[in-house]
Amino acid sequence: MNSPMTKVSSAQPSPHPSADPAALAETGLTPCVATHHEPSWRAGLKVGMPTLFGIGAWGLVVGIAMVKSGLSVPQALGMTLLVFAGSAQLAALPLIASHAPIWVIFATALVVNLRFVIFSAVLAPHFSQLPWRKRFLLGYVSGDMSVALFLHKYPDPAPQVGKLSYLKGLLYPNWASWQIGSIAGILVGSAVPAEWGLGFAGTLAIICVMVPLMQGRPALCGVLVAGAVAVAAAGLPYKLGLLLAVLLGMLTAMAVEEGTEKWRQRHE
Fold first, then answer.
1. What pLDDT, on a 0 to 100 scale, did the predictor assign at position 14?
2. Concatenated DSSP letters for 179-219?
3. What beta strand segments (E) does the chain contain?
4. Can you give the pLDDT at residue 13?
5. Residue 18: pLDDT over 60
6. Among 43, 50, 44, 13, which residue's Cα sits nearest to residue 28?
7. pTM of the entire structure?
């Protein structure tokens, strides 16, 4: 049975696995990051919770896109469970629909997913002592936002109790949120009228991602102005109304935020 700590000196007793890292340094013991640490797992879950809605919405869009691109439900389910990479899936779908050579499809997905090579290289020093099977599983469930949040919490690769638990608290809910959204999109995609096409999926994605971000008066005012301008300027050529809506929405949000800050300073 593996000990939760790796001894440096046999004369020193092994502390509880949830011991504070600073206390471990004083004892001369190296913490094992693989030991489950419930507080760290809950902390990772709490930090990643605000991102889950957007991840699920993105999965929903990709699920609908797979069905609308001509994949059957079993094929789409297999793709989302095996690939788990929205950008690569969306890049590969048009190639699959046009019957491109298999090497072109794989090469495209590989290029799109090259960023995960960087993620793996950055995470490797943190978990190099883990068995390759565990590292393989962590690589499969890794996502952009989860890795970024983990590195923000643990920039130092030195062993610390709770590291792996914190990462799992980020990765597993992220994976589950994506799969739930993607599978829902696959099942719902067959019910969406064909004439709606992928434009419906894109609109749905924007709404799902935008709503959680509308926090505070500046964001709300910016969204309202952008929406109104987009509708009013819909007739402009080259879809310039969208560009105008984005610019005016951003300027509105910045102006409201600055005005609110000045008002607070005057009344403090």
1. 40
2. HHHHHHHHHHHTTS-GGGHHHHHHHHHHHHHHHHH--SHHH
3. 5-6, 30-31
4. 38
5. no
6. 13
7. 0.64
